[in-house]
């Protein structure tokens, strides 16, 4: 018998599964490292360059993850640290300065350079923070140099974006005195989604809206005590902390996935800025109807199907809310690398009571639970997908849900299709 969880101080049932115990396990885990975020960030910030300071293994990872770009020169590279550097036989600061100088001579279009550590400074024997400060002074004002860690020892792959945006936050100037409160949307979004969101904000009467990161380094928003911010991604813990340290105020909301999440996300912004209900409905009703129509065919294929989420991208909880409430799927377990309750409570309140939540991973134990549940669909990383497929499970790569534009009303049908496609493929193969 399932009993509702109750708040100790209020004595009433908590909504959804916000008061639910979380299974926490620590052991072997299967995740990409934070360097992978470069793959979408270098496309988003059009005059930035990402220089990974690391090993040949890191260089191979970035090249493999990003693919071979024949018709356009990518805005990322690797400064390889070899045994000579690690042994102290070379002045690694001088070596790095030489690499940066050659890079900027070859690529005068670079206005923002990120030095990305592939390992902690104790491993690579180089303080990238001091190096970035020195190089920024050297190449200012033409180029700004920032740094962050993409170490797989310290991060999951979406935390690379978090670290990058957190490094950007102290960089823009503070707003001028007397500037009206503005809204910043934090999280890398595809340009088409950003344009769609901008139009809806304008329909709400909110013209002073900026996005972090901006498409160009010169467009990074000013952030200060008058700023309010919405998170577009659930994995931006350090970015949110950096924004709050600058005096910005977080607007709590579910994340903009599906019709329900997108509507709640915009409603939180509308309420924060005093937008009337009639204006809000006028701005969002059409989009909500389009999203419902686009997801309906996929709901017919997915309703009642059982789904298991392995921890990988930190998108798992918003995605679970979407597939449960809008597609009618049954949640067997929802795993996430980290569960930040302050940011995810609005999502947890919408999820079914009794949902099994897990944080962290002991992969062998979690695989045993997945096999016992026999779900219709498993959402997991690339390292687990092929073995699970060989065992007869239908899988969806979680990384595809990061690379694909899935936020907003007009992407709701595409998001639903990503979950329907593996089951449709399996049905076709069986025929």
Unreliable runs: 1-13, 85-90
As for the CATH topology of the largest domain, it is Rossmann fold
CATH superfamily of the largest domain: Nitrogenase molybdenum iron protein domain
What order do the strands of the largest sheet run in, or round the barrel if closed? 1-12-11-10-13-14
First CA to last CA: what distance? 40 Å
- Number of H- or I-type helical stretches: 17
CATH-derived architecture of the largest domain: 3-Layer(aba) Sandwich
In which range does the helix fraction lie?
40-55%
In total, the number of strands is: 14
Strand content: 15-25%
Outline:
With 431 residues, the protein is of the alpha/beta class. It has 17 helices and 14 strands. It folds into three domains: 23-29 and 291-430, Nitrogenase molybdenum iron protein domain (Rossmann fold); 34-155, Rossmann fold, CATH 3.40.50.1980; 182-279, Rossmann fold (3-Layer(aba) Sandwich).
């Amino acid at each position: 018998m399932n009993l509702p969880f109750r708040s100790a101080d209020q004595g009433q049932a908590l909504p959804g599964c916000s008061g639910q115990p979380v299974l926490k396990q620590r052991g072997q885990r299967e995740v990409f490292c934070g360097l992978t975020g470069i793959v979408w960030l270098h496309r988003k910030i059009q005059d930035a360059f990402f220089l990974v300071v690391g090993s040949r293994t890191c260089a191979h990872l970035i090249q493999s993850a990003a693919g071979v770009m024949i018709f356009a020169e990518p805005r990322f590279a690797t400064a390889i640290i070899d045994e000579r550097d690690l042994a102290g036989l070379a002045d690694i600061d001088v070596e790095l300065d030489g690499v940066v100088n050659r890079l900027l001579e070859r690529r005068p279009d670079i206005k923002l350079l990120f030095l990305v550590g592939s390992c902690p400074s104790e491993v690579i024997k180089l303080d990238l923070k001091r190096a970035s400060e020195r190089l920024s002074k050297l190449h200012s004002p033409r180029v700004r140099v920032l740094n962050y860690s993409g170490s797989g020892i310290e991060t999951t792959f979406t935390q690379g974006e978090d670290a990058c945006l957190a490094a950007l936050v102290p960089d823009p100037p503070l707003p001028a005195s007397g500037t009206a409160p503005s809204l910043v949307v934090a999280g890398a979004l595809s340009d088409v989604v950003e344009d769609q969101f901008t139009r809806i904000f304008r329909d709400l009467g909110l013209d002073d809206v900026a996005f972090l990161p901006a498409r160009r380094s010169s467009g990074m928003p000013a952030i200060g005590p008058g700023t309010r911010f919405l998170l577009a991604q659930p994995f931006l813990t350090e970015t949110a902390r950096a924004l709050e340290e600058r005096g910005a105020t977080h607007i709590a909301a579910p994340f903009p996935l599906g019709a329900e999440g997108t509507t709640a996300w915009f409603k939180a912004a509308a309420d924060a800025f005093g937008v009337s209900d009639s204006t809000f409905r006028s701005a969002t009703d059409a989009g909500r109807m389009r999203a419902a129509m686009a997801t309906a065919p996929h709901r017919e294929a997915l309703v009642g199907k059982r789904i298991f989420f392995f921890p990988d991208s930190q998108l798992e909880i918003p995605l679970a809310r979407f597939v449960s409430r809008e597609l009618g799927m049954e949640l067997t377990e929802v795993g996430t690398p980290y569960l930040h309750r302050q940011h995810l409570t609005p999502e947890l309140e919408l999820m079914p009571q009794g949902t099994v939540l897990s944080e962290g991973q002991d992969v062998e134990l979690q695989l045993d639970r997945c096999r016992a549940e026999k779900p219709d669909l498993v959402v997991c990383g690339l390292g687990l997908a092929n073995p699970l497929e060989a065992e007869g499970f239908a899988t969806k790569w979680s990384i595809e849900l990061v690379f694909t534009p899935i936020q907003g009303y007009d992407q709701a049908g595409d998001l639903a299709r990503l979950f329907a496609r593996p089951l449709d493929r399996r049905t076709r193969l069986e025929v």
